[in-house]
TrEMBL record:
<protein>
    <submittedName>
        <fullName>Molybdopterin-dependent oxidoreductase</fullName>
    </submittedName>
</protein>
<dbReference type="Pfam" id="PF00174">
    <property type="entry name" value="Oxidored_molyb"/>
</dbReference>
<dbReference type="InterPro" id="IPR036374">
    <property type="entry name" value="OxRdtase_Mopterin-bd_sf"/>
</dbReference>
<feature type="domain" description="Oxidoreductase molybdopterin-binding">
    <location>
        <begin position="44"/>
        <end position="188"/>
    </location>
</feature>
<dbReference type="InterPro" id="IPR000572">
    <property type="entry name" value="OxRdtase_Mopterin-bd_dom"/>
</dbReference>
Length: 207
């Protein structure tokens, strides 16, 4: 059972002006930083673009395997969002460019009984999301940050961002998104982190 300090219908917890999602700008327990700290599993894979590919598979009608060129030829989305790390820092108003996961899902056509996705990184990292959170329009697979190619230490050439969840839900060095009809836990979820990861509920850990 997930431990949440407040129920799903309780007011969001945080401080500051109301953000683009109708939430307090800074979630409870977070401190704003101008820097972008680097956190990983101790491995920063350097994937050459000619060898990079992205798989979208699992319970879908049309599995995809995209090369870098094919990925870059998809509709590109620019967005501004905030980044909330479970280690209590938040970086605000980050400018991204990438492909929305919802657009990739439209190509792959998940089955009607899909409930979750599991994301995989080239560093063997995994993380899970509910299908409702995964298909929010600000969940992007980004290749550009502040007008520059996403750096290796931050997950380049492509990482996923999940602005309405804690950032561990966005796999760095992403290589695969698997659509599932049941929940599977990822790396940190298996080690006691929350499956749901809502920043405005202080939803960091499971029991």
């Amino acid at each position: 059972m997930e431990h949440q300090a407040y129920g799903a219908d309780a007011p969001p917890m945080g401080t500051g002006n109301i953000n683009r999602h109708g939430m307090p700008e800074v979630p409870i327990g977070q401190t704003v930083t101008e820097k972008w700290p680097v956190l990983d599993l101790g491995n920063q894979p350097n994937i050459k673009l000619e060898y990079w590919n992205l798989e979208i598979n699992g319970a879908v009608e049309h599995p995809l395997k995209l090369s870098w060129k094919e990925f870059m030829n998809l509709p590109q989305t620019k967005d501004t969002s905030d980044f909330h790390c479970v280690t209590t820092w938040s970086k605000l108003n980050m400018h991204w460019k990438g492909v929305r996961l919802i657009d990739l899902a439209a190509l792959a056509q998940p089955s009607s009984d899909v409930t979750n996705v599991l994301c995989y990184g080239y560093d063997n990292y995994t993380t899970n999301l509910s299908i409702e959170e995964a298909l929010k329009p600000d969940v992007l697979l980004v290749h550009t940050f502040e007008g520059q190619p996403l750096s290796i230490e931050h997950g380049g050439p492509v990482r996923m961002i999940t602005p309405q969840l804690y950032a561990w839900k966005g796999s760095k060095w992403i290589k695969r998104v698997e659509f599932l009809t049941e929940k599977k836990r990822g790396f940190w979820e298996e080690r006691g982190y929350s499956d749901t990861a809502y920043p405005w509920r202080n939803d960091r850990y499971s029991v």
